[in-house]
TrEMBL record:
<dbReference type="Pfam" id="PF01497">
    <property type="entry name" value="Peripla_BP_2"/>
</dbReference>
<protein>
    <submittedName>
        <fullName>Iron complex transport system substrate-binding protein</fullName>
    </submittedName>
</protein>
<keyword id="KW-0732">Signal</keyword>
<feature type="domain" description="Fe/B12 periplasmic-binding">
    <location>
        <begin position="64"/>
        <end position="344"/>
    </location>
</feature>
<dbReference type="InterPro" id="IPR002491">
    <property type="entry name" value="ABC_transptr_periplasmic_BD"/>
</dbReference>
<comment type="similarity">
    <text>Belongs to the bacterial solute-binding protein 8 family.</text>
</comment>
<dbReference type="InterPro" id="IPR050902">
    <property type="entry name" value="ABC_Transporter_SBP"/>
</dbReference>
<feature type="signal peptide">
    <location>
        <begin position="1"/>
        <end position="32"/>
    </location>
</feature>
Length: 344
């Protein structure tokens, strides 16, 4: 299974949405800063949260967090927690970060590595917490796991999208947007910024509800397939990765909704049999979105698939599709794309 992190290519989200979100979020921050800081004082700790089925107790707010990958890093920035970070790990092929709603977080936080996360880097940064996930940095094969970090006295918080569900390495224990809201609320408690977390969740829920209100309904909903990468076999998203909720709430019928995993490989024959009417390309990696589009359009087994035949292929960014604070904006932009492609 590919590691998303290693092939990250990112471009800014639609400027309109980014600008709207900036205003909304700065508004939230302004309203709740007072209550948050008061709460962060005495009496708040210890706090216990449930993370991937495990209860974790925090005696105080971590002060030197290291994050891995872009969505995870932006969750911290969206909560205004850059001062509690020792830095982030992310490839340098990151697109333009000047138009993202939390660009200040990038400006104020140390970029620790463009190569990948490992134990040495974490110890060098004097980290007290690593926020990463299975296949988002944590990897038994590399010997970099929460258990290994615990041996050297470093805590871990796992991205909820990446929780393993007990069937081998299959991932996913809750609906994708619930995973985002769960992490925001858990981190709100861990860092004593619950009000900020609740304000964000409320803003995101409203944004998603507004998009759903305008989305295609019933028989008008097109069948949608998410294409991540892969030639011989496609890598795609199941019920527990961000695209499932993004596609569904944007007015699409996600053709891989029965796949009880987050990101996984399927066969082309399944895609052909389910005949998607729209394909969403996940834009990242060494293969550009344009190259992916050309492959889909020239690959003989797909010639009669509706989306390919009618050239209904749209592109979303990696950071829009993995668990991140950009998911709600992605619902809105995809809802618009699906209406446009369906001529409604």
């Amino acid at each position: 299974m590919p590691h998303h992190f290693h092939h990250l290519r990112r471009r800014p989200a639609a400027l309109g949405l980014a600008a709207v979100l900036t205003l909304t979020l700065s508004g939230c921050g302004a309203q709740v800063a007072g209550t948050d800081s008061a709460k962060a004082g005495g009496g708040h700790y210890p706090v216990t949260v449930e993370n991937c089925g495990e209860k974790k107790t925090y005696r105080k707010a971590p002060q030197r967090v290291v994050t891995n990958d872009v969505g995870i890093t932006e969750i911290m920035f969206a909560l205004g927690l850059e001062k509690q970070m020792a830095g982030f790990v992310m490839p340098d092929d990151k697109g333009d970060l000047t138009s993202v709603p939390w660009k200040d977080g990038y400006n104020r936080t140390k970029w620790l590595s463009k190569k990948g996360i490992n134990k040495e880097l974490v110890l060098d940064a004097r980290a007290d917490l690593v926020f990463a996930g299975w296949n988002y940095g944590f990897d038994e094969g590399e010997g970099f796991t929460p258990a290994e970090l615990a041996k050297v006295g470093v805590g871990s918080y796992l991205l909820s999208e990446s929780c393993r569900n007990g069937r081998g390495t299959a991932r996913g224990v809750m609906a994708p947007l619930d995973a985002l809201y769960t992490d925001l609320r858990n981190l709100g408690r861990i860092f004593g910024v619950e009000d900020r977390a609740e304000a964000l969740v409320a803003t995101f829920r409203k944004q998603v509800a507004e998009a759903e209100g305008k989305a295609l309904k019933g028989a008008d909903r097109p069948r949608v397939f998410l294409y991540d990468d892969g030639r011989d076999k496609p890598f795609t998203s199941g019920a527990y990765a961000g695209p499932h909720d993004i596609i569904t709430r944007a007015g699409g019928d996600h053709v891989m909704k029965d796949l009880k995993d987050s990101w996984a490989t399927v066969g082309w024959e399944t895609v052909v049999a389910r005949d998607p009417e729209v394909i969403v390309i996940n834009d990242y990696g060494d293969t550009s979105a344009e190259q992916k589009r050309k492959f889909l359009k020239s690959y003989p087994p797909l010639a009669n698939v509706s989306a390919v035949k009618n050239d209904r292929i749209v592109v979303l960014d990696y950071v829009d599709l993995v668990e991140s604070p950009r998911n709600p904006a992605a619902v809105a932009s995809l809802a618009e794309d699906l209406r446009r492609l369906s001529g409604r």
